[in-house]
Structure formats: structure tokens, C-alpha cells
Amino acid sequence: MALDRLQSQGAERALVARLLLSPELVGDTSGLKPEEFSIPDLGRVYSSLMRRHADGKPFDVVTVQDDTGVEVNVLELSPASFASVKEYVNVIKDAAIRRSIVGTLDRARVRIAADDADPLGVLATALDTISLKTKATGLRDSAEVVRAYSDEFKRRGAGLASGISYGVPALDATLLPMRPGRLVVFASRPGVGKTALAESVSDHAANYGPVLFVSLEMGAEELTDRALARLSGYKAGDIMRGRVSLEDLDSHLKARSDLPITYLDEGMTTTADILSAANRVKMKYGELGLIIVDYLQLVADKGEHEVYRVGAIAHALKRMAMSLKVPVLSLAQLNRAIESDNRAPRLSDLRDSGAIEQDADTVVIITGTPMKPERDLHILKQRQGRTGRVSLMFEGDTQRWSGTGEGEW
To answer: Do 190 and 256 reside in the same domain of the chain?
Structure first.
């Protein structure tokens, strides 16, 4: 029997070489497992670099050898690793599945040849095992969908939220929870408080699962200043100027240090960087609850025209939500025209809107002026939910959102 399709040694060598030469591509490995390698040493090398990546540590041939005892020569591994990482991953996974199938059938053959009392039962069990192992990702029959739906419906009946709430009571009474695979967009002009609202949502969501907060405008330390204002009630300006003692903030800092929030606050961050970071958070905690991006137009993906570039970013964030099975909350800027036009906001007011309104499942435009606390949240799109307007209050000094939730529907 030909064994070529059962082995993926060339792809394994090429993949490890490619990752050692270009560590930023680790996020493209799509959940490949070390045990799927046919060369045990390369499986250990791959496991080492994935662990280091998850911990935010650099890796190279030296660190890998220290971790595993395996001596790696990148040039000997593959002198021409030019295909995409995903292509190598697919080859490795395909070979691993084939080896698993052959192993299952070989064990069944041995049992049947040994005069097992129920040869047809042995074969049926083997086929069931193969079916589970080779199930295509994303394909579910009606029975499986109904089972999953029933489980979720029971959670609703038990009072358990189907998704992540926003943590602002008036907003939770208006918006459906953020569910896995959904892209939610909050948009406004600068200074209206959309980042503070996203931070508040992040703090609330972190009580239920890990959060990745991608901040492209402010560093994590500045966000911590604002978080301490929300928690303590001290004015953010006083905290930033050092007018509040560290002892007064100590209990809040300790509580905050326990929250599973991971910040990505580097410049020139692309959607590929965000996906890689999300996979690292998921590997670290074993799960990921929410991704927040502040803000969409600052994501550094390139494009020939700004409208198409921003639209492609929105589409990438939606795909990310679907593939990772988590909600993504992205902030966005509005066009300047909304400040001068005396009219209600529209979806087209999203700056360089492109396909944002098409890919987003929920779009909320926040209006108001920085000098007054009143804010109107215009829900212009909400799949399976109502649209309309809800009024809230934003206190800039303490970065807190509140309100009765009165509005028009």
C-alpha cells in the first residue's frame, strides 16, 4: 500500500521552518495540534514555539533547542518554504486524519480476524469512530442543530444569558446580548464617550470570561487611569495628575489585576495581528469571551482606497467572530458632516463606511456633545432586535455611563 498520503514530513519541515523564520505567522496555524505531526521531534518543536507564543515570549532555534533538546537547522528543514502556512497545515491535518482512519481500521481488522463474536458490530463501531474524527468543521445536520438549540433554550429558561450583556442596565434592556459570531459596532464623533462605554463593557464581560482589548488610540496604562476613575469615583483628571494617593486606589488595583483582560496596544496593528493575539489569549486561558477593537478605522490593514480598506477590515472582523466563535465589539468614527447637519444619524454616517453596515449585526450611533452629559444611542441595526433611540447619561469626570433608558421605538 502506498504510504505517501499518510505522511506529511515535507509539510511539517516546511511549516516549522516557516514559523521559526516568520514568528508572526503563528496565528495562521488554525488549531493544529502537536500530536498531528508524523515526526515526533517536529511535534515537540511546534509545541514549544506555540507555548512561547501563547506566553508572549520570543522563540528561535536556540530557545526551541533549550526547551526540547531537538537541534534544529532551518535550512535543512526546508530550503524552500514558500507556500502559505495554512496550506502546510491542511496537508498535515489531512495526513493525520488518514493515519487515524488506517489505525482504526487496522484495529478493527485484527479484532475481526481474531474471530470476534460480533464482527459487524466491530465494523460499525470503527465507522462511527471514523465519522467523528473526520467530521467536516462547520457542517452540522438538523438533529445536531436542534440539540444545540434545545440546550441553549434551556439556559434561557433558567435565566442564563444567551451571550454577553453590556453591563449597563438601560442598554441591556434595549440591546440583545452579544452572541458568538456577532459583530457589534458602536460609532460616534470624538469625545462623546464611546471608548469609555467599550471599557465599561470590557470590565463587565471579564467577570464571565477572558477579554482581548485592542486599543489603537491609548496605552493600557491610560486605560487603567480611566478604569480607576470608574471604580473609585475619583475624577480621572485627578488620578492622571497624581492628586490621588496610590493607597487610595490600592484595593481597586488589586481587584483589577484579577480580571482576565489582555491588552494589545501597539501601533500599526492589523487584523492578522488581532487574530494572532486572540488565539494566544485563547491558548492561555483555554477560552475567549469577547474581542474589543478601538477603533476600526485605525486598524493598519492596507488598501488602495480608504472605503474599500475599511470595508475589508469590517469583513475580516466579522470572519474572525465567526471562526473564533466569539462576539467582536468594534468602535468606529462618524463622518464630520453629522456635526453640522440637523438630522437623525444614518448608517451612511459611518466614516469610510464601505461594508461596515453590511457585515455588522448591530450598529449603535452615539450622539451628544462633550460639554453636556446627555447622550442619545441610536440603534440603527440589530438582527432579531428592535431599532430606535435610547437616552443615557455619561459622566466624563468618572467615565461612568448611567440612565433610565427612556427612548423612542
So the answer is: yes
pLDDT at 130: 72
Please name the helix (run of DSSP H) or strand (run of DSSP E) that holds residue 13, with its range, or none: helix 9-21
CA nearest neighbour of 254 among 280, 224, 226 = 224
Region of residue 331 (left: phi > 0; alpha: psi -120 to 50; beta: else):
beta
Residue 152 lies in a domain: no
pLDDT at 184: 93
Q: Which of 368, 408, 370, 376 lies closest to 392 in space, CA to CA?
A: 376
For 155, phi then psi, to 5°, come to: -65, -40
At 46-80, the pLDDT tens digits run 998 888 877 778 888 888 888 888 888 877 676 66
Assigned C-alpha cell, 59: 522563540
Helix axes 9-21, 40-54, angle to 10 degrees: 30
Residue 71 maps to which CATH number? 1.10.860.10
Which strand (E) or helix (H) includes residue 367?
Answer: strand 362-367
Instruction: Give residue 230's domain range.
Output: 169-408
Question: Do residues 289 and 180 share a domain?
Answer: yes
pTM exceeding 0.70: no
The angle subtended at Cα 71 by Cα 69 and Cα 73, nearest 5°, is 155
Q: How far is CA 126 from the centre of its chain?
A: 36
Cβ(221)–Cβ(256) below 8 Å: no
Total domains present in the chain: 2
Q: What is the CATH number of the domain that holds 380?
A: 3.40.50.300
Cβ burial of 315 (10 Å; 0-12, 13-18, 19+) is: middle
244 and 327, same domain (yes or no): yes
* Whether residues 72 and 205 fall in one domain: no
* Structural element, H or E, at residue 391: strand 388-395
In a domain, 181, yes or no: yes
What is the DSSP secondary structure assignment for residue 109, as one 8-state letter?
A: H
